[in-house]
Amino acid sequence: SSTAEFDVRPGGEVHSFSRSLGDYSCSFTYSAQGGTNEQWQMTVGVSEDSGLFSCSIWRPQGKSYLFFTQFKAEVKGAKIEHAMAYSQAAAGALNDIPLKQEEFGVTETTVSHREGKFRFELSKLMIVAKTPRDEL
């Protein structure tokens, strides 16, 4: 697996960050308001048998203080099997706090906010996707 750091920038513009690993890629697109840039991380990995591709996006400090107006994480080359979004990520004494189910939606390739339901708090996204297997 590989991890990359990136800045999540406020200011209301739409920004995107993506990483690839072999045939698979993960991208995080968002817009946020608030104080200053925050350092986030994205980790992409493939299971030993190459059956699963995972993508995690989070703020290592645990809690983001930015006000997210929208977010979308998208995988290419694999189909999402499990995805979760969190308003707070585990760090130190903090625990992961998942968003309420109505705040976000999951399709075969994306995890994104639900307009009118999402409460603007995001600190972590986790995706596990199944890779297409060539049947012998």
TrEMBL record:
Signal peptide: none annotated. Transmembrane segments: none annotated. It comes from the Eukaryota. It holds the Pfam family UPF0556. GO terms for cellular component: extracellular space. One of its GO terms (biological process) is positive regulation of endothelial cell proliferation. This is MYDGF factor. It comes from Quiscalus mexicanus (Great-tailed grackle). The lineage of its organism: Eukaryota, Metazoa, Chordata, Craniata, Vertebrata. The gene is Mydgf.
